Amino acid sequence: GKASATKLHRHLRPFFAALVPHAISQGINIAIVTFSPQVKLIRDMLALAFPDIHSQIPIRGEDGTWQYNGGGSVEGKQKHMASAVEELTHSRGVKITRRSTLLIDDDAKNIKVALMNGVKAVLFQLKHGTGQPGLCAADMLELEQ
């Protein structure tokens, strides 16, 4: 419920608290893709964190409320991203491609799958011992085909 969303909101990384509204204000579409089934909790937390823009952020988690029937990769978070792109394309009329998409993730396996599928990706990790985000240049590699 609301108490859980409030608790989760307290753990929202400041990097994302700043990035999300700035990106949206610049016309960049944002989606949340997760293996968590707690989509309602995430949606409630987004409403607390971003009251004016949360409805613009599709969420794809393991809650059984969506499916991806396309021909693309279903490894890693690729099907989650493809489904979110379909929603954004239909609801906003925007053209989103693999090359115009950026995955920010804390799991190197998801990053590798994204890069192998032509999606730009950044490995997000906290700098050891600081609690601050670290986006290392080496983590921002794009595989060229």
What can you see in these coordinates?
With 145 residues, the protein is an alpha/beta fold. It is 39% helix and 11% strand. The chain contains 5 helices and 6 strands. The relative contact order is 0.12. Mean pLDDT is 85; it is low at 136-145.
Oligomer: single chain
SS-derived structural category: alpha/beta
Order of helices and strands: HHEHEHEHEEE
Unreliable residue stretches: 136-145
Strand percentage:
5-15%
Within the largest sheet, what's the order of strands? Answer: 1-2
Quick one: overall form?
A: globular
- Biggest β-sheet description: 2 strands, parallel
Computed over alpha carbons, the radius of gyration is 15 Å
Number of strands: 6
Q: How far apart are the first and last residues' alpha carbons, in Å? A: 46 Å
The helix content, as a percent range, equals 25-40%
Number of helices, counting only DSSP H or I runs of 4 residues or more: 5
Summarize model confidence as the mean pLDDT: 85
Describe the structure using short key phrases.
145 residues, alpha/beta, two-stranded parallel ribbon, 5 helices, globular, disordered C terminus
Present the secondary structure layout.
Elements: H1 2-10, H2 14-25, E1 32-33, H3 39-49, E2 59-60, H4 78-92, E3 102-105, H5 108-116, E4 120-123, E5 125-126, E6 133-134
Parallel strand pairs: 1-2, 3-4
Antiparallel strand pairs: 5-6
Helix pairs in contact: 1-3
